[in-house]
Design brief:
A hairpin with a 6-residue loop joins β5 and β6. By secondary structure, the chain is an alpha/beta fold. It has a single domain, classed as Rossmann fold (3-Layer(aba) Sandwich). The strands form two sheets. A five-stranded parallel β-sheet has the order 2-3-1-4-8, with helices on both faces. α4 runs parallel beside α5. The protein is 48% helix and 15% strand. The protein binds adenosine-5'-diphosphate (ADP) (3 copies). One adenosine-5'-diphosphate binds at residues 15, 137, 139, 142-143, 201-203. It catalyses: AMP + ATP = 2 ADP.
Length: 214
Amino acid sequence: MRIVLVGPPGAGKGTQAAFLAKNLSIPHISTGDLFRANISQGTELGKSAKSYMDAGELVPDSVTIGMAKDRMEQPDAANGFLLDGFPRNLSQAEALDEILKAAGLSLDAVLDLEVEEDEVVKRIAGRRTCRNDSAHVFHVTYAPPKTADVCDHCGGELYQRGDDSEATVRNRLAVYHAETEPIIDYYKAQGLVSTIPALGEVADVTRRAMDALK
Ligand code: ADP
Ligand code: ADP
Ligand code: ADP
């Protein structure tokens, strides 16, 4: 299956993607995680993305689309993938359609994680991310690590992402409403969207998402 996960920052996309990708045996492709890995490795791509991420702005399409395309063309993605955080604006959505069409493929579903803004702000404020792998995510109260500030998965140090600061979060939410939300209508016109209420237990949200894919 080829699936797109959308929702505001902090909605739980990364958390759900980890479970869904495992259940469906497809790779979880997060453009945010790819950018952060490039930044920690000091690549040119990471250098060109960093200032945009720190400000809570979108990284330019000229950088983002090529990176996403390269990842989707890896052998492990040949039979499907779960996209988390891409596309994030209409031109990325159109580019994705073109990339898939050129390969004779199409999307199967778009899952829209719906969470009210107050809850999203709480989730982001308490989020702690592993320095070794930004797909390893915890929350100080909702999903605390067994040992404070230590990743349960790999023993890495947990930290608060710079762009999870209150000032940047406000801008990220504004960017989400202005640039990302329009892709939901774009995909609704293609009949692809399932809206998933994303409040409550992680496992319950996963179940709702799996039911929507049946
Ligand atoms: P969250 O899920 O909390 O919104 P992500 O890890 O998905 O955070 O993204 C972090 C940052 O990486 C974004 O604020 C943006 O700067 C950049 N980014 C991630 N994906 C994209 C994308 N598809 N287009 C442009 N920028 C992106
Ligand atoms: P996104 O990728 O959409 O930005 P994350 O998956 O990183 O969101 O989740 C944001 C924060 O909220 C993390 O700290 C995560 O542990 C927490 N979280 C995710 N899902 C839930 C949930 N259902 N209930 C409570 N907290 C959650
Ligand atoms: P188990 O080990 O029983 O499979 P987990 O350790 O995955 O369970 O999760 C224990 C509880 O924490 C569950 O209620 C789950 O929904 C919740 N949970 C797991 N991961 C997160 C997360 N990233 N954010 C918020 N809650 C989480």
